[in-house]
Amino acid sequence: MQFSSKSLVQGNLKIKTRGSPRHHARLTGQVRYFTKLVAGRVVDISTNGIALDLQSPLYAAAGSKVRVECDDIGLLDGFVRWTHNGRIGIEFDRSSNASAKVASYFRFFHKDIKPVLKR
Q1: Which helix (H) or strand (E) holds 43?
Q2: Minimal CA–CA distance to 25: which of 68, 56, 62?
Q3: Which residues form the PilZ domain (predicted)?
Q4: d(C-alpha 48, C-alpha 102), whole Å
Q5: pLDDT (tens digit, 9 = 90+) per residue, 90-107?
Q6: pLDDT in tens, 16-73
Q7: What number of H helices and E strands is found in the chain?
């Protein structure tokens, strides 16, 4: 009997994967967590979330409410999903209009790019 590794992982761990495709971007932004404001660069973005490479540490735990301030998109409210090696992943708050702002950005301004550097 053969099992696929994907079905075993999803069946045993119940991992929730990202529902929308990621797009690489070259945008600058800032993440606000209470009074702390940290500048960063958008690594990738989707209609459900955003990942940023931060210039300095941001000590926010998973589930913390944050706000991303990006000149090209606007203010995006969300929750920290993960942090690792100076990067942060943020899932947009479903009750905000962040998804609509990102969809508008994709419709009018986004250009596909390839990453220059990889970690």
Answers
A1: strand 36-45
A2: 68
A3: 17-99
A4: 9
A5: 999 888 888 788 777 777
A6: 655 676 766 778 999 999 999 999 998 888 888 999 999 999 999 999 999 999 888 8
A7: 2, 6
Q: Which amino acid is at 65?
A: K
| 92 and 99 Cβ atoms separated by less than 8 Å | yes
Tokens, residue 59: 């000590």
* Domain regions of the chain by residue span: 22-109
- In the CATH hierarchy, which top-level class contains the domain 22-109? mainly beta
Q: Which of 67, 41, 42, 68 is nearest to 55 (CA)?
A: 41
- Does residue 24 contact residue 114 with C-beta atoms inside 8 Å? yes
Burial grade of 90 (CB within 10 A; 0-12, 13-18, 19 or more): buried
SS3 content of the chain, % helix, strand, coil (to 5): 15, 40, 40
Tell how far CA 29 is from the center of its chain.
12
